[in-house]
Predict the structure.
Amino acid sequence: MAFTASGDGHGYSREVPREARGGNGRRVRGRLTRRLSLLSFGLTAVAFAGIAAVTFLDIEPTVTAPSGAGHQIEAYTAPATPAIDALGERLAQKPDIWTVTPDAAPLFRMRSLELVDLPANYEVREHGRGGRLDLMSFGDFDQPGLHLHMVVYRMGGEAPPPSTLFVDLARRAAETGVGVAGIGTPVVHDTKFGTAEIAGVALSHAGRERLCQAFRLDMTAQAPYQMLGWTCDDVPVSAPEIACFIDHMALVDTASDPRLAALFDTASKRQRPECGGVPIPVPPKDA
């Protein structure tokens, strides 16, 4: 007799032959397999529950810092990027077009009593290649009475080749929305800056046409500057009167261009008596 353990308790039983025990062995292995499957399923469920808690409840795992002294963070030196640096410098430059510069300080004032009570405007435009336009306007082209528009051009790398008065006038007039319908034969007249070209012109704006006088003064022999503009009135403005308007332009004290300062200093010594010395500066509004 041999002592065995059964599922019903402990007792004595006869020894069962090896070949007679096959069915019971298969049943034991089946129960063991099912238990292992249940255990594996349970562990998997617990793992998925933990992942879900971290994902949906935003639970951050606790990280234990290593013992001992902290590690030093080594300095990082970025590699040179000349192409990107050159692009940044290029973008920081002014574009190769004319753009309005609202914070630019005016360079010029008018000293003419005829302009004191007229509405006025001063605008500065700059070009990426060095050019600058100072535009002074007095009076309203679309209203009766005196209107004066004067442009002082500091030439830069964008300066076009020399051309006729008509071409320059058409270019500057178009920038203000004014069209040139016709131009007469230019005459010359002396000013304190040199000889000016003056011609009668027909100008139009917003369907209104006026007979005006256009003028141009080339000062490049002394400095890279050109003056151009037009004046309109109910009664045509004469060439001597236009020359006096030009002579009444003065340089502001804050102008820093030494070439421009030298140009005006030389011109002041050529002030013509017929234009008079008007001590009242007339700055355009908002200048």
Q: What stands out?
A: The two ends are 125 Å apart (CA to CA). The chain has five helices and 13 strands.
